[in-house]
Amino acid sequence: MASPADFSFSQADGARTALCTGDWTAIEMGRANERLESALAGASDVTLDLRQIGRCDTAGAYGLLKAAAAAPKPPKMVARPEVERLLELVERATKAEPTPVVRHRSFHQLFERIGRGVIHLGLEVFDTLVFFGHLLVATGRAIANPRRVRWAACFALAERAGLDAVPIVMVTTFFIGAVVGLLGANMLTTFGAQVYVVELIGVAVLREFNVLITALLLAGRSASSFAAEIGSMKMNQEIDAMRVLGVDPFDALVFPRFFALLFTIPLLVFAATIAGLAGGMVVAWSQLGLGPVFFEQQMINNVGATHFWVGMSKAPVLAVIIAGIGCRQGMEVGGDVESLGRRVTAAVVHAIFATILVDAMFAIIYMKLNI
Length: 371
What we know:
The protein is α/β, with parallel strands linked by helices and about 375 residues long. Helices cover about 70% and strands about 10% of the residues.
């Protein structure tokens, strides 16, 4: 049975002895080592009798050595062999010099890091292709047998991940259109060509800003949501339970989210287009005196519908990329919270980067096609 550490002094034949009793361990030692250190600080010619100690660990041994070091003259210690060995071990450890940390930096390590990065990038590309291949198979199964699709989940996710984003998308694109109108009004007025601000607003909003702003907002809003939802299910082993029950997680989790964004992003882009043009029209009307009727007529005559369809053509591709990245990062979550946070962050960053990259590729392609 454990007993707290303690000590007592006795004197016989002119010799003073400090008798230590109890368990000198990290749990039972308490402040006994500090009291012993204070008692030995002003004493000399004291013998430490450690034979009555019950259990002793490294914390107790360190406390005894520290108390003995406080005496003016190192006291003589009498202990059982196993306690002596422990005291010697702890004393050597306290007197040992710390191991220096040597960091070798060489070109070998630099090339090794570069090689690991290249291999990691190749594995990421391979895993992404595998994921999209599995998603393509799930989409093919859904087209071949629509009755197996969980339509309730699809439309619920479409409302939550897409339609609920209509207010923020419209407000953001409204101010983007207004900013484009302000810049165009300030620059074109210098050259006396302020009437062309309508064409500037129309082309900028219809071709780029409507779909780009919508995709970026969905990348930060829906991609992170998809990764967090699927990742939490992965942590709770719900996805493993689905596989045990014979349910493909791609059919139950990935395809509904893929369908939700694919179904709602054209509607969001259309709403963003209306809001962006409205913002530009408000600026053109208030700053340049170009009324709504003139604005609309200029849009019809000089801008046309081609730019609108160019912007709309990017929407399905960006929906597939955003939904795919968010779901894939969720499926890669491990069993800890740190992995979940890392994957959610990666989903947002990768989705935003991929959105901008794909938009730039579309711009180059349409420029080469002279569209």
